[in-house]
Amino acid sequence: MSAPLQRTPLYDAHIAAGARTVDFGGWDMPVNYGSQIEEHHAVRQASGMFDVSHMLNVDVTGQGAYDFLRRLIANDVARLTTPGKALYSCMLNPQGGVIDDLIVYFFASDTWRVVVNAGTADKDVAWMRRVAASGKFDVAIAPRRDLAMVAVQGPEARAKVWAVRPAWKAATENLTPFSGAALDGDTLVARTGYTGEDGFEIVLPAAQATAFWNDLAAAGVRPCGLGARDTLRLEAGMNLYGQDMDELIHPDQAGLTWTVSLKDAARRFIGRDAIEQFATPAAFLGLKLLDRGVMRSHMKVQTALGEGEVTSGTMSPTLNVSVGFARLPVGVMPGDAVQVDIRGKWVPAQVCKMPFVRNGKAVEHA
Predict the structure, then answer these.
(1) Exposure of 345 by Cβ count < 10 A (0-12 exposed, 13-18 middle, 19+ buried)?
(2) How far is CA 185 from the centre of its chain?
(3) Residue 46 — φ and ψ, nearest 5°?
(4) Which of its termini does the chain have fewer beta carbons within 10 Å around, N or C?
């Protein structure tokens, strides 16, 4: 007998709004509230909000927190010197595979927060504790399931948040991307997101989440589900754990080389040895389909240099063509012509850089 699905503090609000829910990593989450396409366009053109409370905030504190995080993740938290600044990184296993991709927030040398994905949360926390114990770091690792998290995204997103919480404006209006402001203890407003649009991700006590959500809805912010979140992140060229990378994939094979810092030779983060010895990288690039059809993960891609594979694919509501990510043989370049196997038919496609959409507009790929 399978375990019952977990629910976020906003579950009742979703049902009241007519959400259709699905099992997402063991959580009963809204996939849409009617038209997924309209939700997508609302984020690109105005504002939309997502319940991302299934993701886990983990507080990492103690005198050994800084050294622990420099060992734990592939990017270097030494780059974070201003309270509230954030860093995107991968947490790797000794073989260099991606255990998870995550965001780390710096508040003080002994006070940090790590935000991990929902489907890997339990595994991530267990791994973090194992690393802390094996390295004898003076650190406390505290999952915060008492918190909720709402992403408000789109060109009007920040103004809508300030309209319903005007007291937050002074502390957040000058935030730059990947920075955050801590407000009233457990409330954190960060200028981050997963859509390619401006906006905030807000962490707040679970007991306050429904009122905040309802206030945003009354102000005209459209509730959006996982369906629109996926098409938005794909247009924006943002990876999804479990599709574009996993524990068998190195960052180099998923377009995430930029998240790995090798600058400090003395910093031996977990997985570094494997990455430095890795000799079979892949090209990770975008694809635009040139004929009818929709790309999906695991579809074969035929190139002049051999076979590749689609890792994520969808129909782009902004571009009205199918776009996707693909792991391709080294040497394949943007502009190359390839073919994608869609239900037994080879359909022409063009290799291109990512993202496909930036600030609500198509990115031209010559």
Answers:
(1) exposed
(2) 25
(3) -145, -95
(4) N
| Mean pLDDT (10-residue bins), the chain, 366 residues | 89 98 96 98 98 98 98 98 97 98 98 97 98 97 98 98 98 97 94 97 98 98 98 98 97 96 97 89 95 98 98 98 98 98 98 95 82
Q: Which amino acid is at 95?
A: Q
Give the CATH number of the domain where residue 20 resides.
Answer: 3.30.1360.120
Number of domains in the chain: 2
Please indicate, yes or no, whether residues 296 and 181 belong to a single structural domain of this protein. no
Domain end: 262, 280, 298, which one? Answer: 280
* Share in percent of the chain as helix, strand, coil (round to 5): 25, 35, 40
CATH number assigned to the domain comprising residue 286: 2.40.30.110
Are the beta carbons of 114 and 34 closer than 8 angstroms? Answer: no
Report which DSSP code applies to 166: G
DSSP letters for 299-350: -EEEETTEEEEEEEEEE-TTTSSEEEEEEE-TT--TT-EEEEEETTEEEEEE
Q: Which domain covers residue 255, as residue numbers?
A: 1-280
- d(CA 54, CA 49) in angstroms, rounded, equals 14
43 and 106 within one domain? yes
